[in-house]
Amino acid sequence: MNEIQMWENYQQVIAAYNLAFATLSYDDETIAPRDGSSYRNEKIAVLKGEYLSFITSDEIIACIQSLLSKPQSMVEQRKLQLTLKEINQLKAVSKEEYITYVECCRNSSEAWKKAKENNDYSIFKPHLKEVIEQTKHLVSLRNDGLLPYDSLLADYEEGSSMEFYDKFFEKIKTHIVPLVKKLREKNIQYPSLEGVYPIEQQKMIMEKIASYLQFNPSWGYLSQSVHPFSSGFSKNDTRITVRYDESDVTSAIFALIHEIGHATVEHQIGDEYEGSIIHRSITSGIHESQSRFYENYLGKNKSFWKNNYPYLQNMFSNQLNDISLDDFMKAINQVKHQSIRLEADELTYPLHILIRYECEKGLFNGTISIDELEDTFNRLIKEYLGIEVTNPNEGILQDIHWSEGEFGYFPAYALGSSYGAQLLVSMKKEIVVEQALENNQMEVIHEWLKNHIHHDGALYLPLEIIEKACKEPFNVSYYIDYLIDKYSSSLLSE
Amino acid sequence: MNEIQMWENYQQVIAAYNLAFATLSYDDETIAPRDGSSYRNEKIAVLKGEYLSFITSDEIIACIQSLLSKPQSMVEQRKLQLTLKEINQLKAVSKEEYITYVECCRNSSEAWKKAKENNDYSIFKPHLKEVIEQTKHLVSLRNDGLLPYDSLLADYEEGSSMEFYDKFFEKIKTHIVPLVKKLREKNIQYPSLEGVYPIEQQKMIMEKIASYLQFNPSWGYLSQSVHPFSSGFSKNDTRITVRYDESDVTSAIFALIHEIGHATVEHQIGDEYEGSIIHRSITSGIHESQSRFYENYLGKNKSFWKNNYPYLQNMFSNQLNDISLDDFMKAINQVKHQSIRLEADELTYPLHILIRYECEKGLFNGTISIDELEDTFNRLIKEYLGIEVTNPNEGILQDIHWSEGEFGYFPAYALGSSYGAQLLVSMKKEIVVEQALENNQMEVIHEWLKNHIHHDGALYLPLEIIEKACKEPFNVSYYIDYLIDKYSSSLLSE
Question: Using a CB-CB distance cutoff of 8 angstroms, which residues of chain A are in contact with residue B42?
Answer without folding.
Answer: 12
